[in-house]
Write a structure and sequence with these properties.
The chain is an alpha/beta fold and 379 residues long. It is built from twelve helices and 13 strands. Helix 2 (32-45) runs parallel beside helix 8 (237-247). The radius of gyration is 21 Å and the shape is globular. The structure holds pyridoxal-5'-phosphate. Pyridoxal-5'-phosphate binds at residues 55-57, 81-82, 84-85, 127, 153, 155-156, 177, 179, 190.
């Protein structure tokens, strides 16, 4: 494709830092570059405890172990999300209670959460879709009222905010992704943020194969051994070195991505007087972090036509999630409620290319191609 959907961006010093990590002679996890990444996130976003992981999926699995999720526990989350959001909890035996998306936005409908809470509910997992915040005051109030935990799936939400609070700093814990399709990336990578102090000690143990090795390295215990459940969740220094190279350029990466997002949005809004194509709704409490630009088509046929027309023009646009409540794996376990908005986004949402190296003229070209195709289709 002439214009791919995504292109991972090399911001400058990643390879130099990998070289440095190799020369340091310590390539396993939790070395200098991992610490530099942790320190960066703490100082830039005020996150309390940061633990790099090998993926957001891993960070979510850690959160499920930390919350002691057991057979029969219920976990509430949107259906319109990536499989890992659910899988992490299903692996521990949870029953997933899916919430529909909002009619005006693919994010979860906060007003439908409370009626799904039962005595078995252990956690609410919010997903900040496209980096656009869920209404966290509503969710945190429910959590306090009903004594349940909140995990933020902040995979797409780096450098995004709920009012003035950075996403990832609000729930009891949060999971970020640095997969190559995300704003800041290292191929495969992630991070668990622990905001509630009572979880931090165990989080370190779970991440270190169920051992107290982290405490041992700090000199707090004189030998380390098997003390809890765990797995190998920490990335190597090579991964951390690459990630640190990206983090140093977070501001310029974010500026460019937000500019691209704004150019898409203003161009479509100018044209949409001719035809009614809904552009993304950003609630007043949320910010735009330039993760994703999407459009919502009238139906799946119109979307297929658009994808095809864009492809013919050398532009790769893609659809997104398939509702998890009707997935091959989970539909028999779902409680049967229809989730019409989630299904609508499954059929109608179209994501357009967005990556650092795109030029303004490419963005305009994509907008023109979309607008022409829609006019063709609707006439
Ligand atoms: C990308 C993504 C994940 C998975 O991230 P990995 O780092 O690939 O494990 C999970 N949830 C959401 C919402 C995502 O967008």
């Amino acid at each position: 494709m002439r214009i791919p959907f995504n292109k991972p961006y090399l911001s400058g010093k990643e390879l130099e830092y990998i070289n440095e990590a190799v020369l340091n002679g310590k390539l396993s996890g939790d070395g200098v570059f991992t610490k530099k990444c942790h320190d960066y996130f703490k100082s830039k976003f005020g996150f309390k405890h940061c633990l790099l992981t090998t993926s957001c999926t891993d960070a979510l699995e850690m959160s499920a172990i930390l919350l002691d999720i057991k057979e029969g526990d219920e976990v509430i989350m949107p259906s319109y999300t990536f499989v890992s959001t659910a899988n992490a909890f299903v692996l521990r035996g949870a029953k997933i209670i899916f919430v529909d998306s909002r009619s005006d936005h693919p994010g979860m409908d906060e007003s439908q959460i409370e009626m799904l809470i039962t005595p078995k509910t252990k956690a609410i997992v919010v997903v900040h879709y496209a980096g656009v915040s869920v209404d966290m005051n509503v969710v945190m109030d429910l959590a306090t009222k009903h004594g349940v935990y909140v995990v933020e799936d902040a995979a797409q939400a780096i450098d995004s905010y709920y009012f003035e609070k950075p996403l990832g700093s609000i729930g009891h814990m949060a999971a970020f992704s640095f997969h190559e399709t995300k704003n800041i990336q290292c191929g495969e990578g992630g991070m668990l943020v622990v905001n509630d102090d009572k979880f931090i000690k165990r989080a370190e143990i779970i991440r270190e194969k169920g051992t107290n090795r982290s405490a041992f390295f700090r000199g707090e215990v004189d030998k380390y051994g098997w003390v809890d459940l765990g797995s190998s969740f920490l990335p190597s220094e090579i991964t951390a070195a690459y990630l640190f190279g990206q983090l140093e350029n977070l501001e310029s990466i974010q500026k460019r991505r937000k500019d691209i997002w704004a150019l898409y949005d203003s161009t479509f809004k100018l044209q949409s007087t001719d035809f009614n194509l809904p552009t993304p709704l950003i609630p007043e409490f949320a910010s735009v972090n330039g993760h994703m630009y999407y459009l919502v088509c009238n139906d799946q046929h119109e979307r297929a036509f658009l994808i095809d027309q864009l492809k013919k023009a050398g532009i790769y646009a893609v659809f997104h999630y398939l509702s998890l409540h009707v997935s091959t794996y989970y539909h028999q376990l779902h409680d049967g409620r229809d989730l019409i908005n989630s299904d609508a986004y499954t059929d109608q949402l179209l994501r357009l290319p967005l990556y650092y190296e795109m030029t303004d003229s490419q963005v305009i070209e994509i907008c023109d191609t979309v607008i022409k195709a829609i006019k063709n289709y609707r006439n």
